[in-house]
Design a protein that fits this description.
single chain; alpha+beta; three-stranded mixed sheet; 12% strand; Hypothetical protein af1432; three-stranded antiparallel sheet; 19 helices; Alpha-Beta Plaits
Length: 463
């Protein structure tokens, strides 16, 4: 009898009460994936890392964001499936894209982007690694460790083909790199499926829709972009021989709002100078702790903080909890790392000396600053180049979007900026260089500020 009840429960959808999307109903296979240690790990990884130290509401985690992405992926595909039968979107397609949405962040490390953009590049310079690649590896690990091949077959998936498809969706190649059709999970006529979770063509995807809504909610900011309206006006059209997701012409201003939301979130929250200060401190603590932390992996092999990314059994143990492990340790080897984290707890943060606009590469600015120190220790400072943009560097991403009109829903074209508004931005990226000092005495801070004031104004600025 117990087995029968268990089987019934495994074949039922589950409803999640979410503060952003309301009641989310998910397919049993998605629930099965959620109920694994590999996915549950995401409960302990802050979505916005150090931003929580500035915005007290930003306590949300990768776990709930990932569930939201799976939900929105399903909403978009079901809408396209119902409106355009000729696309032949089947339940396998929908499930695979939803699974990719659910699993796209499995590879994030402690404090999210601090780990992959600050820590790993310094701990392992030149190492070819990204959180997307780690997500692909963790997805394989999740499937194998939890015996999900049979579950996939039970729900109508073809494990060998669909598993590959899901991993392709998590980290698709950039559009400009595509000459011949690069994918094996689905044929060219279903190219649009690769634009749902991670859209390399124009950056319009459900991942962004989800984190815009969730992050704004927890940051206490207004989100002026309505993804549910946009979904209703989404349509697949053939453009230059490729089936891609296009939008109704009247939605172009909604899309500009979407990209402005991204710009605004980066400027006000994601790249906040104090949030980044905290993340640089956590990065430095992790670097000092790196070789002194033993993390058990497959077959009992031992890894460090920076090498655990090579073994999923070890990597699953890396969450934000590493912070507390270091902070509460009594190990002599971890003393240096512990002292940095204790500074964070006392709010004795690295001080931002100031910023200036710059088009120079970070390495050049860093070299110039080190020269400007005149014998000072470069390790006492952090030089960072922050970029606020619409998602495609200095380019207007709307150039890469195609729009259909009411009279012709099957033909999509670019839209002229003048048709949208004469008040659209002329520039789509802003770059600023910041310099932080790690020194704490009033005398040192005063000297560092004077040094910055003679350095910053002398740098080449943006036009």
């Amino acid at each position: 009898m117990a087995d029968t009840v268990s089987e019934i429960m495994e074949n039922k959808n589950k409803v999640f009460n979410d503060p952003i999307h309301g009641n989310i109903e998910l397919h049993p296979i998605l629930v099965k994936i959620i109920d694994t240690p590999q996915f549950q790990r995401l409960r302990n990884i802050k979505q916005l890392g150090g931003v929580y130290y500035v915005y007290p509401g930003a306590s949300h985690n990768r776990f709930e964001h990932s569930i939201g992405v799976a939900y929105l992926a399903g909403e978009l595909l079901q809408t396209l499936k119902e409106k355009q039968r000729k696309l032949r979107i089947d339940e396998r397609d929908v499930l695979c894209v939803q699974i990719a949405g659910l699993c796209h962040d499995l590879g994030h490390g402690p404090f999210s982007h601090m780990f992959d953009l600050m820590f790993i590049p310094k701990a392992r310079p030149g190492y070819d690694w990204s959180h997307e690649k780690a997500s692909q590896n963790m997805f394989d690990h999740l499937v194998e460790e939890n015996g999900l091949i049979g579950v996939m077959e039970h729900h109508g998936l073809v494990p060998e083909e669909d598993r590959l498809f899901i991993k392709e969706l998590i980290d698709p190649p950039k559009v400009e790199e595509i000459t011949e059709w690069p994918h094996h999970g689905r044929p060219r006529e279903k190219a649009f499926l690769y634009e749902v979770v991670s859209n390399t063509r124009n950056k319009i995807d459900v991942d962004k829709w989800e984190y815009f809504a969730r992050d704004c909610h927890h940051l206490g900011m207004k989100n002026n972009f309505d993804c549910h309206r946009l979904i209703k006006f989404a349509r697949v059209c053939e453009v230059d021989g490729m089936m891609q997701i296009c939008y109704r012409d009247k939605e172009v201003f909604n899309l500009y709002n979407m990209f402005y939301t991204r710009f605004s979130l980066h400027k006000r929250a994601y790249q906040h100078k104090v949030a980044n200060s905290v993340e640089w401190m956590i990065r430095d603590a992790f670097l000092k702790a790196d070789k002194h932390m033993e993390i058990k992996g497959h077959d009992g092999k031992t890894f460090t903080l920076s090498t655990a990314i090579d073994d999923m059994v070890a990597y699953i143990k890396l969450t934000d909890a590493i912070f507390d492990q270091i902070l509460n340790s009594s190990s002599k080897e971890l003393r240096g790392a512990r002292e940095i984290l204790e500074r964070i707890m006392r709010r004795e943060l690295y001080v931002c000396l100031g910023d200036f606009s710059s088009q120079q590469p970070q390495a050049i600015i860093e070299a110039q600053w080190n020269k400007h120190l005149r014998g000072g220790n470069p390790d006492d400072y952090v030089v960072e180049l922050v970029k606020y943009n619409y998602g495609m560097g200095a380019e207007d991403p709307i150039k890469h979007v195609r729009f259909y009109n009411k009279q012709n829903t099957d033909e999509a074209r670019p839209i002229n900026r003048a048709q949208v508004s004469l008040l659209l931005p002329e520039h789509f990226e802003e770059k600023k260089c910041r310099i932080y000092t790690k020194r704490t005495s009033n005398e040192d801070l005063e000297a560092d500020r004077k040094m910055f004031n003679t350095f910053g104004p002398a740098q080449p600025h943006q036009a």
